[in-house]
Automatic annotation (TrEMBL):
This is Transposase. Residues 97-106 have a biased composition (Polar residues). Gene3D superfamilies: Winged helix-like DNA-binding domain superfamily/Winged helix DNA-binding domain. Pfam families: HTH_Tnp_1 (PF01527), Transposase_mut (PF00872). The keyword DNA-binding applies. Residues 53-73, 94-114 are annotated as: Disordered. Required for the transposition of the insertion element. Belongs to the transposase mutator family. It comes from the Bacteria.
Length: 160
């Protein structure tokens, strides 16, 4: 067997951070997370386990160790209070959105009228000798009056 490999503190901290991120984001088992990080960094999973355990034992590691339950509980309380405050503010805004008749103002919701005006036609009145004509020009989302691929302009190839 060869001599044991030595890793610097930066590599150890990176391995611990990747391990903790993998556990949090992917919900894998601890062993699967250690194997994945070990493959990425070419480090034995048992070595990563030792580094993680050492990081959890150090209270001043600054790497956001998993074993720090007081900070997590305080953060959870803070987030729950913020969530409750936002829910109250949302209810206040919902009640404020009632118009003068007591009906809810549904400005952002789909309706048949809103869909027709958005996707419908632009009506233009043209005065002619015979009278006024109402012309309906289709509204297209891309801003052109011609659908994609069909226009009234013929393209002449260059070089002819």
């Amino acid at each position: 067997m060869g001599a044991p490999r030595k890793f610097d503190e930066e590599t150890r901290a990176r391995a611990v951070r990747l391990y903790q991120d993998r556990l949090r984001d992917h919900g894998e088992s601890k062993l699967a997370a250690r194997r994945h990080v070990g493959e990425l960094l070419d480090v034995n999973p048992a070595t990563i386990r030792n580094w993680v355990e050492a990081a959890e034992r150090e209270p001043d590691s600054g790497s956001g160790s998993v074993g720090n339950g007081d900070d997590a509980a305080a953060e959870l309380r803070r987030l729950r209070a913020e969530n409750a405050e936002l829910r109250r503010a949302n209810e206040i805004l919902k009640t404020a959105s009632l118009d003068s008749t007591g009906q809810r103002n549904n400005a952002g919701e789909r309706s048949e009228q809103r869909t027709n005006t958005f996707n419908g036609y632009r009506h233009r009145d043209f005065d002619t000798r015979a009278g006024t004509i109402d012309v309906a020009i289709p509204k297209l989302r891309n801003g052109s009056y011609f659908p994609t691929g069909s226009s009234n302009v013929d393209v002449v190839p260059s070089g002819l």
